[in-house]
Structure formats: structure tokens, C-alpha cells
Design brief:
Membrane-bound Lytic Murein Transglycosylase D, Chain A, 2 domains, 58% helix, rod-shaped
Length: 110
């Protein structure tokens, strides 16, 4: 076997190795993606979104209201606060005692 033939053989094996590696990685990523999306679907199909009105107390903040009402459907407390602000037409984080806010929450269907 000449050096040229050996180099071609090594090159073919390298291409085969890279191809198999790419295919294996693609299947792994697909499997991980499917299992993560199944978990999200299961969480969201068991609970429904509802809304309730709350009266703001003197010591309330958007953060404390979010901590009291947030559930696993939200990725972060900031996302929940942004939704509360959007629902209530708030452009800042200031809320006032005596105000009424509409807040979302998730619960099992009733």
C-alpha cells in the first residue's frame, strides 16, 4: 500500500467518523429536546390560567405580590412581574396602597 492509498483510506475513515458523530449528536439533541418539551406540555395541560383581583397593602411591592402568586409555569419572577405590569397598564414598578391589581395564577381546572 502506497502512502497515497494510506492517506485516502485515513481520509475516508475520518469522514465516516465525523459523519457518524454528527448523526449521534443530532439524535441526542433531538431526544433531549423532545423530553424537555414533553415536561412543559404536561405542566401546562394540568393547570389553567386564571386571574384574580388583589388590594395593595402599604407594605406590598410587585416583588412580594409576585412571590405570593407565582407558579412553575413562569420562567422567572421578573417574567411574572412583567405580566402583572402589562395586565394592569403599569409602566413602572411603583404601586400604591389601596390600589387594586389583577394578577394571574395557575390552578387545576375547576
Amino acid at each position: 500500500m502506497s502512502i497515497r492509498e494510506a492517506a485516502l483510506l485515513i481520509h475516508r475513515h475520518y469522514k465516516l467518523f465525523v459523519g457518524v458523530t454528527v448523526i449521534v449528536l443530532a439524535f441526542l439533541l433531538l431526544f433531549i429536546g423532545v423530553s424537555n418539551s414533553d415536561n412543559k406540555v404536561n405542566a401546562s395541560t394540568h393547570n389553567e390560567k386564571y386571574f384574580k383581583c388583589i388590594n395593595v397593602s402599604a407594605d406590598d411591592t410587585l416583588w412580594s405580590i409576585a412571590e405570593a402568586n407565582i407558579s412553575e409555569e413562569y420562567t422567572s419572577i421578573e417574567d411574572y412581574i412583567d405580566e402583572v405590569k402589562s395586565i394592569n397598564g403599569l409602566y413602572s414598578d411603583k404601586i400604591y396602597s389601596g390600589a387594586t391589581l389583577v394578577v394571574p395564577y395557575y390552578s387545576a381546572p375547576q
